[in-house]
């Protein structure tokens, strides 16, 4: 079996990364996981700066997140990642969160692609760039988890992109879409529910100052469906499966 | 000379705590500093939970922040705090950020008070609660730095309090006011300037779902003055002295 190089970091969760019920904020979970992929790339000599020198940048197309339990304030977790496999168009990266007892709390499968920084279009994935990760080259295109389309809009909120929402790529950081999706739901619901599965599909980048509409449908089966709309374009779709907190 | 007990923590700054120019986000700097006061309280057996069991909670009245340089992504900083002194109504706490070479990057002086959790009114500061910090008891009321009133509104933005803005006290976390103040300024200004001094005075708590107006005046001397207004009340005033990034 092919085994990609793994990279791990420990992280103690400060209270300010947690919500009012002391669980890790969902957007912060994603930022924390993605951080380790950057750290692995740096460690292997294929940093974002090196990629940029080739005129290339990573873009995120989809997150599939499976949550056994969200970590809480004060816990020390271990985040592990590997660039599991890739084909001509996509790279598939795995992430895990383990608690101090070694139990798996979170698994995330993220689909990346490579963008030509000049044309802002998708490029093909170069073997040389991927070599240091010992990632398996595969032929097939993997299908990620599905998002569900909205049938009825149960509620919506509007947002304007803030200065601190923008990352070094000069567009809205991928984690912020989850902030908009989650925040559209009622606080009373959020304080009594925790996510089990989150699927995010990114369609279009959003820029500083853009206005956003975050629409949701929340069904009795505990599944919420979200559209993040900017300038009449669907910029991202999110589907979250929730369970009641006891 | 009286010396209060000090408490220190190291912190490596992940990129996601930084803005698009790689400097630590200002609201995150404040959250990071305040975190250490909670950690010291826990370590000394006077945690927030213990305070709550007495019907008391800490509230923040003012931050005076002096910045030599904002730390950047990847740096490991040391945050140190002490409950320097107190009188009948107020506690004065000091915070420092030092870089790996031991240089002081940031100093913050924060004025706390104690709130009766039932009446939501200010209570008097109890000697017993303060004893473990070895804080000096003083008679005088210290005057913090001054905020400047707005003479002309140069710009304003509106915000709605989000679920993740609320902390365990069920009101907007003190750091979020800085998010609203900074974000009201133009991105082009923020990308080319860095703060040297920040004064925040809190007047009134803001709750989940409240609508906020963030007004600013930015003068040629590089000083920005901010009002954070909720329901026609001035909830906080902020004054920031900026300098150009070279």
Automatic annotation (TrEMBL), chains A, B:
Transmembrane segments: none annotated. Pfam families: Acyl-ACP_TE (PF01643), Acyl-ACP_TE_C (PF20791). Residues 5-133 form the Acyl-ACP thioesterase N-terminal hotdog domain. Keywords: Fatty acid biosynthesis, Fatty acid metabolism, Hydrolase, Lipid biosynthesis, Lipid metabolism, Transit peptide. Residues 155-243 form the Acyl-ACP thioesterase-like C-terminal domain. It comes from the Bacteria. Belongs to the acyl-ACP thioesterase family. This is Acyl-[acyl-carrier-protein] thioesterase. The lineage of its organism: Bacteria, Bacillati, Bacillota, Bacilli, Lactobacillales.
């Amino acid at each position: 079996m092919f085994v990609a190089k793994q990279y791990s970091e420990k992280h103690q969760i400060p209270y300010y990364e947690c919500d009012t019920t002391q669980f890790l904020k969902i957007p912060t979970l994603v930022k924390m996981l993605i951080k380790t992929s950057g750290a692995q790339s740096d460690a292997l000599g294929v940093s974002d700066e090196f990629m940029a020198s080739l005129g290339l940048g990573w873009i995120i197309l989809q997150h599939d997140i499976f949550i056994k339990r969200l970590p809480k304030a004060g816990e020390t977790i271990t985040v592990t990642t590997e660039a599991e496999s890739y084909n001509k168009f996509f790279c598939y990266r795995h992430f895990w969160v383990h608690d101090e007892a070694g139990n798996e709390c979170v698994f995330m499968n993220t689909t990346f692609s490579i963008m030509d920084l000049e044309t802002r279009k998708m490029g093909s994935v170069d073997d040389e760039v991927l070599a240091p990760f010992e990632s398996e080259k595969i032929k097939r295109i993997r299908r990620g988890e599905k998002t569900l389309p909205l049938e009825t809009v149960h509620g919506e909120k509007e947002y304007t992109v803030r200065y601190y929402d923008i990352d070094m790529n000069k567009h809205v950081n991928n984690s912020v879409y989850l902030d908009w999706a989650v925040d559209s739901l009622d606080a009373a619901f959020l304080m009594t529910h925790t996510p089990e599965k989150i699927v995010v599909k990114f369609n279009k980048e959003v820029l500083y100052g853009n206005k956003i509409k975050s629409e949701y449908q929340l069904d009795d089966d505990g599944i919420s469906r979200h559209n993040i709309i900017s300038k009449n374009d669907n910029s991202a779709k999110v589907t979250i499966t929730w369970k009641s907190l006891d």
